[in-house]
Amino acid sequence: MKLTAFSAGRPGGNSEIYLKEALMAAEAKGVEVELIRLTDCDLHNCRDCSPNFCLAQTDVTKCPYGKDDCAWLVEKFLDSDGYIIAAPVFSLTPSSLLVTFRDRVFGPKMDVASADLGMPEPEFVKGRFKARPGGLISVGGALTEHWTSLGIPTLYTTTFSAQTEIVDHMNVFGVADRFAATLNEKWLQRAHALGEHVADAMLTGDHSWRGDTDRVCPTCHLDMLMLKPGTNEVTCPICGISGTISVKDGVAVVDWPDSEENRAQNRQLIDGKKTHLKEIFYCRATYYEPYEAEAKEKAKKYESYKACVLTPPSRQKK
Ligand SMILES: Cc1cc2nc3c(=O)[nH]c(=O)nc-3n(C[C@H](O)[C@H](O)[C@H](O)COP(=O)(O)O)c2cc1C
After folding, report:
1. Is residue 88 in contact with ligand 1, taking CB distance under 6 Å?
2. What CATH architecture does domain 2-212 belong to?
3. What is the pTM of this model?
4. Ligand 1 pocket member 92 (CB < 6 A)
5. Among protein residues, the one whose CA lies closest to atom 6 of ligand 1
6. Tens digits of per-residue pLDDT, 237-253?
7. Tens digits of per-residue pLDDT, 22-35?
8. Which of 104, 49, 57, 53 lies closest to 76 in space, CA to CA?
9. All CATH 3.40.50.360 domain ranges in the chain, comma separated
């Protein structure tokens, strides 16, 4: 059983300290652990190599950036039995390195639901698609929690396609300066517990939630809601399920029906991912393919309007 951790923070910084506390706890439970510093990796942004959609879909080394560390990171993830990721908060969200990691390593090529819709499993996966338990750690320096609001929700977006089943997440705030993480015993203990929770889930095969129980959404255990204006209908923007909100004894309460529709929309479930893939196929077949020639013709107007596009210094001929 191997637990692989990824840090998008400073080498030796706060995210890494919490990750190492979690890994020490997991190792004591008997799982093998390893830590990858994304700052050490050569990793370029996904450039959405349309019209071929993703050149890495069947062979991860075919990515236009095939020579960077993406293929190695994909291998490390597929070889793992559990996953923890930690990232610092930069302007409310995790740092851009985390988003680059998500877009290059995960996304459609790692979508475990694709095989159910008749798409061949890529050669590089070699039968290693499986549900893994995971943990998320977000670290912000601000004392007010709302300055870290999109940390865990964005970290969550790394988990959907490859079916990483989050068993715990922790949102640290008020830890800013390098090594400050060592001074706050409460957060260190919380990271220790998170490491134990992920290890227990790996060792028992029981991927049920082990984190804080006072959360609003029953499936991703976050407190974010999209409210449809003029109604009492709410949707969780992270997992996609819907419910209704009301006030009882002065307290807002959300009723989340255990319905077929919610199972079909929940992107944490295989069914939710299948719904999304079908939507993509439908959208292309209905709204694009019959009109492809027309779209190409209309695009000429925008392609030829290029006097406004600047060439950055790095691309200017010397
Ligand atoms: C560019 C930048 C933006 C930041 N924005 C936020 C922020 O919006 N909210 C917050 O709580 N902390 C913010 N911070 C503070 C970091 O999240 C904090 O220092 C964190 O402990 C760094 O983690 P690390 O040591 O793992 O890199 C920001 C830091 C930087 C460098």
Report:
1. yes
2. 3-Layer(aba) Sandwich (3.40)
3. 0.96
4. yes
5. 90
6. 999 999 999 999 999 99
7. 999 999 999 999 99
8. 104
9. 2-212
